[in-house]
Amino acid sequence: MLTALKQLKSFRIVQLILAAYQKRIVRMLIPLIILAIVIWLGSRELHNMNIGRMLFELRRLSPWTVLEIALFSLLAAAVMSSYDFVVRRHYRMPISVGATFRYGWIANTFNNACGFAGFTGAGLRAFLYKKSGVPLNVITAAVIFLSPVAITGLSLLAWTVLARLFPGDQLFHTYPWLRWAMWGMAFYLPVFLLVQRSRLFGKWFNQGKGTMPWTTILASVAASLLEWLFAALAFALVGARVLHGVPFDALIGVYIIAATAGLISMTPGGIGAFDVTTLLGLQLLGVHPDLALTVLLLFRFFYFIVPWLIALVMTAAEIIPSRERIGELAGSGWSYSLNKWQQIWAWPGQFRFLADLGVWALSKLVLASGLVLLLSAALPGLLYRLRFAEKLLTLPIMQLSHDISVIIGIMLVVLSHGISLRIRRALRLTLVLLLAGAIFTFIKGLDFEEASFLLFVALMLYLSRSRFYREGAPVSRTNLLIWGGLTVLVTAAYLLIGVGGYSYFLHRLPLRMSTNLLFDRHHFGIKGVLSLMSAWVFLTMYLMMRPKRDIEALPDKAEMDRLREFIAHEQGNLLTHMLFLGDKRFYWAQKDQVLIPYARSRNKLVVLGDPLGPMDKASAAIQEFQSYADRYALAVVFYQASPEYLPIYHENGYRFFKLGEEALVPLEFFTLSGKSNTPLRTVRNRFGREGCSFQMAYPPFDDNLISQLRAVSDVWLEGRKEKGYSLGWFKESYLQLAPIALVLDPEQRVIAFASLAPAYDNKRTISIDLMRHLPDAPNGTMDFLFTHVMEWARDEGYVTFNLGMAPLSSVGQTERALREEKLARLVFQYGGHWYGFQGLRKYKEKFSPVWEPRYLAYPASVSLPILTAELMYLVSRKMD
After folding, report:
1. Which of 100, 455, 595, 737 measures 20 to 30 Å from 256, CA to CA?
2. Where does the sequence pass through the membrane (predicted)?
């Protein structure tokens, strides 16, 4: 036997299959292959579906029928908690009856919606049980026991189909492979019982206490049977209310076979295989494809989606601390605020998870409201309601209400994005539109169901109004294109459904019946386009009329005077002088004790350097600025952060990327003597022999000098655009603030210059700022200028001279460096064609500097590649 196995494994194809299985390729492909086969087999039967008719059939259901389906579906979902009562009793878990029910609801509904072979439910059960204090070994045993139990009920029902208690012969006849699938499912139960009674598996499932008792096994099988039986009854109830003349037992048989196909496919919720098999089975029973799809959608919505949405709320409630824990937090100095709605439920508004979950759900409800309005307008109303409405109102008013409903629906689709961003103005407009939508959708055809839904969403928004704190959000071209395209698609769907729905409705009307209450389908296109245009015109006007944000305002003269007063008594840094360019905004934090200079790039606020002011207030100032930026849905990043501030950034949630290193020359040790400085001495002596000279000019500068400097700058630029943000540019008012170093030729003509930038640190550090020279300047001109400037700075009492940053220097050198930093290292090594990174560092090395790293500090939620592109755009953009 072993020899045969070895020979079998020697074949290359077997080795390939085994390797693929070990890599989980086969396990991933199996459900995809099964799903593809089922869809391929059913594609021939699904081509003649009419979405308009399907939606029309949904609309015909009475509210009482919908309520009946909803309540029974919730009962079917509640039955699934019986699993948890079984393991609670057997493993004697210290969990209350209410908690057991909630845990079961959450785990099972999430498992239905998300699937993943039961891992979703198992993971949630483990989390919730642990939260209640159940020991880890008990949790493990319970989860392992429940995993194979869940299928036993379906296996038992499979026997009923094979025994023809519930018919399935038509499906087996058309698709014989389904019979083999049912036999495989049927034999699962006996195999499960044999395994449970074996000593090996019994000890495993029962924590080493021998085989599992028959009472526990039978109770678990009964729980599984209840789950699958109630699900089948829920499906059959939907079918019975939508379809007419289809036997109840035949509907249950279709469900059992479809559930088996969905389970074998291993897709979440059996989606795909279950759906196609259901549609095929119903069509074989003589059901029209449109009605079959109606049954499927109703079942999916009420049995899968609605219980799962309830589970989301339950999950949020489970994560919130208990009232006792809230009291402890409050007693320890933790503060929170409650609105009236939250006080009723004792839910503090500061819990981020709950707030995010609530806002996410509200935005989807607003989106659904817009779609409901469009769907309601696309499909004809119930004829008796239209007749009654015509007696109360005139036909033009009903048609006008119809058109306004479409416009409001499109606007709500767009505003749902603003709701997800917590924008206060979006909330106000949405509330108005929901109320107006409820009124107009009622007027157009007495559609009180849609009006009630809109009013419910409006009430939920109003009760949650405290969560909407943002004053605005960036509106980019990308956002406009996305939401513009979405509204076009939604409008197109409205037109398609409307034409299909009205066509089907007109065919169902008796001959010679007046259709004056219905719209001509040929006018749908014109009305749809006009509604789309009207919605966007209104939204554009609303957007343009929004108040100007303080975040956009550049500093005026008063702000500049305030800056001068601030740096007169507070330490600056190497980048402080750049603030006088006027292209950075100022945020004054901690009662004006800390200054944070920034510029906006798309949805980022990019801070130049570290916060200015007392270091012990920097962390609180950063948090204050983050809150300020969050009011506009913007992220805060720090550009050229220094090493001493990294712990402060880290504690505020920032990641780091090394930008390069700053070349700082200690002036105390700067000298031209020695063998290593021979090239610098040679350049200096040569310039002296050739009659060139160095001169330091002090402000204010006369017009003659400014014109000479401008001429040198224009020639040096050669038509290129100046860079800005962290670099100075030629701006006369800016140049008048600090000394300028000049290199003069023998005719006393300026051939090169460099403006200086003091660090405002009690005259300890000064930097090179704007550097320009003529193309025909002698070789070594900048060496000549730098040596004289550093000697001048040393004589003036400065301690350090900053030669500027060498970008990407010493980045990504270690094996464990970040992937992005390793990529930056390659750019540094081989990017000389574009920038000359290595050459720049090598040039600055001749002045024997001390290299100090500079970093980019950015939140974890920000994409580094995208941020890098935005920074490149920011630096290349000069603002006057």
Report:
1. 100
2. 25-43, 64-83, 103-124, 136-157, 177-195, 216-240, 246-264, 301-320, 365-386, 392-414, 426-445, 480-504, 524-544
Q: How many CA atoms lie within 13 A of 266 on its CB side?
A: 12
Q: At what angle do helices 289-299 and 51-60 cross, to 10 degrees?
A: 60
Pull the structure tokens for residue 210.
Answer: 């021998």
**Chain-centre distance of CA 872, in angstroms?**
24
- Name every residue whose Cβ is closer than 8 Å to that of residue 3 and which is 6 or more positions away in sequence: none
Query: pLDDT, tens digit, for every residue of 287-316?
Result: 877 778 778 888 888 888 788 878 877 776
The structure tokens 């000389």 sit at 832
Average pLDDT over residues 224-232: 90
Order of strands, sheet of 765-773, starting from the edge strand that comes earlier in the sequence = 585-589, 594-601, 604-608, 635-641, 850-859, 654-666, 800-807, 765-773, 750-758, 740-744, 693-697
CA angle 605, 606, 608 (to 5 degrees): 140
Strand blocks (E) in 76-207: none
3-state secondary structure of 851: strand
Establish whether the linkage from the previous residue to 775 is cis, with ω within 30° of 0. no
C-alpha span between 298 and 374 (Å, rounded):
19
End-to-end Cα, the chain, rounded Å: 85
More confident residue, 402 or 753: 753
3-state DSSP assignment of residue 702: coil
* Planar angle of CA 94, 99, 104, nearest 5 degrees: 110
Average pLDDT of 382-407? 58
Q: Are residues 789 and 782 in contact, defined by beta-carbon separation less than 8 angstroms?
A: no
Hey, is 497 helix, strand or coil?
Answer: helix
Q: What is the pLDDT of residue 625?
A: 92
User: DSSP states of 458-471 as a string?
Assistant: HHHHHHTGGG--B-
For residue 403, what are the contacts with CB-CB under 8 A and spacing of at least 6? 527, 530, 531
Q: Residue type for 417, please? A: H
Beta strands 800-807 and 765-773 are parallel
- Cα dihedral 299/303/306/312 (nearest 10): -150
Cβ atoms of 277 and 253 closer than 8 Å: no
What one-character DSSP code corresponds to residue 581?
G
Q: Say whether 653 sits in a helix, a strand or coil.
A: coil
Tokens of 810: 């010493």
Could you tell me the sign of the dihedral formed by the alpha carbons of 330, 334, 337, 340, in that order? negative
Query: Percent of the chain having pLDDT more than 90?
Result: 13
Q: Cβ distance 579 to 607 under 8 Å?
A: no
